[in-house]
Amino acid sequence: MSSVRQVLHPDYLILLPTTPCKVLSSAVLHGGLQKANALLNMRVEKHSPLPCLAPEQTLLNKAEELALPSPTVGMMTAASMKSLGQHIEKRGDLTVECWVTSGLSNVRRVGDKADDKTEPGTINICLHINQALSDSALAEALILLTESKVTAIRDTDIISPVSGLPASGTGTDSHAVFCPDAEPQHHYCGKHTTLGELIGRAVLEACSTSLGHCFRSMTND
User: Which residues pair with 19 in a beta bridge?
Assistant: First the structure.
């Protein structure tokens, strides 16, 4: 059984861990290294203007509307929640679970020429590890998550419309790694470790599934 309860709605994905968590993320709301009790991935309309409020205030208002426990880490996306890819990897008492939503209207290759235009298409990823990590291991997990995302994108042969070269993500991707806020059991999670293996497998599978949903949706539109 997962140690994170999820609530999936056409307008959002909520993740509720059973214990208070430590989170490292690039999220709009409560990004950075934080303690949190919930994560929110909120969908906004792609072709509609955002409210006049700042994005973090919009997310905070939504978290309060949904009565989510504070603090909540919040992300935004224009991607459909139907693009959700989810995967769990287990080894003994260790469980790694990943959730991905994908939009590709803003796809880029790292180093592409900047145009200072922010499009709403994005790849948002949340990764939960059921055992506590040190701060440095959380950072290493976030690096491995990103490397796994890039690998999934390359495996799918997605091309940047800016450079015409293989893409590595979108211009507005948001990622979060969270684990129990407790005495660390892991201080490393490189690819040579069991935890690193499980992170890589979970993110690759969830990303691949999500990108597949995204491509099918684009084909059907």
Answer: none
Inter-residue contact 171 to 108 (CB < 8 Å): yes
Structure tokens at 121: 């298409």
In this prediction the pTM is 0.94
Copy the structure tokens of residue 192.
């040579």
Residues recorded for the chain? 221
d(CA 37, CA 4): 11
The runs of H, that is alpha helices, within 52-134 are 55-65
* Domain architecture of the chain: domains with CATH: 4-220 (3.60.70)
Residues 6+ apart with CB under 8 A from 219: none
Question: Which of 146, 150, 131, 147 shows the shortest CA–CA distance to 188?
Answer: 131
Per-10-residue mean pLDDT for the chain, 221 residues long?
Answer: 90 96 97 97 74 84 96 95 97 97 92 78 95 98 98 95 94 96 96 98 98 78 47
124 forms beta bridges with 101, 174
3-state class of 57 per DSSP? helix
Opening angle at CA 185, ends 181 and 187, nearest 5:
100
Q: Token pair for residue 29?
A: 């709301």
Adjacent-strand bridge partners of 137: none
